[in-house]
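Translate structure to sequence.
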């Protein structure tokens, strides 16, 4: 199976100390959990397909589908997936709608109609704007690419149910409004991505 995950999100004492200083409750959880590692996929197309696979399903289901795709289809590249039948992609365990989206995006990128690497130079808001123009890509998917491929430092996704669940657990909340969420997100800034890693872990405890 081709190895596509090659490194961890790069952060250290600066980010940890900052988050502990602005949010002692989060700081206590960080102390208890130790350093949380988050794997990065530096190849943008691979990371984009990985995020699409993970839409609206559990992490465990996504991992199974992802492993199956690599075993059955080979390299997760635009050229390779553009050549696959949508049925072959679907056969890895996803819906036909998702399979068609992945195939169409692969074709668009393989033909040079969407220069994916240009995203590296753009600010977060522009990356999101360009990605959601692709059918099948919403804001959550774009935000996952910002974290897991581009290593952007300040992403806390309202669309991520695990982040919201982790936040509710951390602060002992029965519900969470968008206003409350935005308040915490601003508190974590400019190191929101590292806060997200801890919130993800808390949600699965």
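Result:
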């Amino acid at each position: 199976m081709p190895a596509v995950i090659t490194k961890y999100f790069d952060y250290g004492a600066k980010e940890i100390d900052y988050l502990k200083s602005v949010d002692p409750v989060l700081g206590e959880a960080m102390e208890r959990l130790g350093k949380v590692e988050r794997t990065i996929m530096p190849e943008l197309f691979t990371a984009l397909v990985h995020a699409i696979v993970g839409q609206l399903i559990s992490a465990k289901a996504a991992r199974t589908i992802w492993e199956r795709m690599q075993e059955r289809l080979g390299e997760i590249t635009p050229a390779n997936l553009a050549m696959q039948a949508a049925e072959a992609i679907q056969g890895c365990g996803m819906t036909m709608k998702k399979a068609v989206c992945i195939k169409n995006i692969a074709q668009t990128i393989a033909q040079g109609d969407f220069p994916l690497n240009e995203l590296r130079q753009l600010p977060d808001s522009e990356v999101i704007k360009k990605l959601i123009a692709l059918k099948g890509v919403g804001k959550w998917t774009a935000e996952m690419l910002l974290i897991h491929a581009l290593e952007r430092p300040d992403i806390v996704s309202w669309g991520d149910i695990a982040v919201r669940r982790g936040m509710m657990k951390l602060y002992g909340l029965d519900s969470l409004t968008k206003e409350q969420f935005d308040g915490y997100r601003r508190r974590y800034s400019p190191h929101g991505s590292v806060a997200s890693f801890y919130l993800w872990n808390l949600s699965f405890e």
